[in-house]
UniProtKB/TrEMBL annotation:
Residues in the signal sequence: 1-27
CDD domains: ARS_like
One Pfam family it belongs to: Sulfatase
Biological source species: Flagellimonas marina
Gene3D superfamilies in the record: 3.30.1120.10, Alkaline Phosphatase, subunit A
Protein name: Sulfatase
Cofactor(s) it depends on: Ca(2+)
Classification via InterPro entries: Alkaline_phosphatase_core_sf, Sulfatase, Sulfatase_CS, Sulfatase_N
Amino acid sequence: MIKIYKIKKRRSIAGIFALLLSFQSCQSSRFDQKPNIIIINIDDMGWRDVGFMGSEFYETPNLDRLASEGAIFTNAYAAASNCAPSRACLMSGQWSPRHGIYTVRSSFRGRSKDRKLIPTETNITLAKEQYTLAEVLRDGGYATCHAGKWHLGNDPTTQGFDLNIGGSHAGKPGNYFPPYKNVELNPPSEDYNLTRLVMDKALEFVETTDQSFFLYYSPYAVHGPIQPVKELLPKYERKASWNGQDNIKYATMIENLDKQVGRLVDLLEATGKLENTFIVFTSDNGGVYSITKQWPLRAGKGSYYEGGIREPMFAYWKGKIDDGIKIDVPVTNLDFYPTILEVTGIKKPANKILDGNSFASILSAGNDMPERPLFWHFPIYLQDGNKETQDSIFRTRPGSAIRLGDWKLIQYFENNDIELYNLKNDIGEKTNLADVEPSKVDELLKILENWRSETNAPVPVKLNPDYSNSK
């Protein structure tokens, strides 16, 4: 049975000290080298698309096993609601305004006549000046491997990785079966699944590496195109749908992904490396609404409602993390960089701004992190709205969002529309409380505005002459 801990308001100094001593022991008599680090960052997997987060339709036994032996985060977030900006935040450890990647390709998404404002231009490549998580680990003595989707430039080996397996600027594969088209990997047979091939090559890296390693396992799955693993189709055709999760083809892709993670764990166990490996699992943004529903969360990928930014997440480290705890403290993928620095004992790089906080202290039951606001900034448009987004035209319009405690505020820049939700009572963000909680609106807006000033976050104000007031 999974134990559930509500994180206490006061930090247990003794508990934190004991946990840090436990982390440090990996570098002393018990192990001769620093812990291996694995980040598993799935593409477009929704908050409820795995068994350990409650799915009864999608089957993920290998992930569920790791999660049950580690710490599950119930309030984990991506720092952006679509692929490239989220990945840039994770790899840089910085909020979007600092690296300037706000969306994929152009920020001028959708029809010009529907955009009231001229959106902020977006970067599409992570600047070479960014000292990435991969670079700090490589310079700290780690062998580093990127496996799968990069999406932040043409070649991840220019930003800290010794080995690149199939990563480029591509945001999705042309196919999951040969020819893969825009993914430069050679299949061993005509029907070889790309997700399996990426793991094949990642396993070669793990098996042949003697030094401490960092594996950024970021498969293209389960991003579209939705192409089923045929041998798994009969199982899901026999299953009943559950709470909006009944996409049979997508289900086979999830199970296939889970199978590949199982292969990785099996190899780590067989080579004696699992015990000294720190694993963090998450997704880069919410599930695509037309493919998988995240109910009770609202909307999906591209939206800044919970369905677009809340992610499945767990941390695993055998013997170092309390088994089977659930942590409800809000965390974000910005926290990965400082957490991994603490776990590995590598000092924070001089003059490097890190916007996240280490969550190492809360991986032991009963410890906590100080309450802090989380921010999202999206001075752009994303087309293809649906019945759960703000409107049917855009998944999101330019704005910012903040979560502090149980409260979440969204501010849209076009007309200064404000939405306020109490997530404790309304996780589905159905009831806008802005009119009945004006003091809370003022409090959160002030914090949000100060943050935008501190990070030089651009706010679009220029009117679009093509706008036809069609909203």
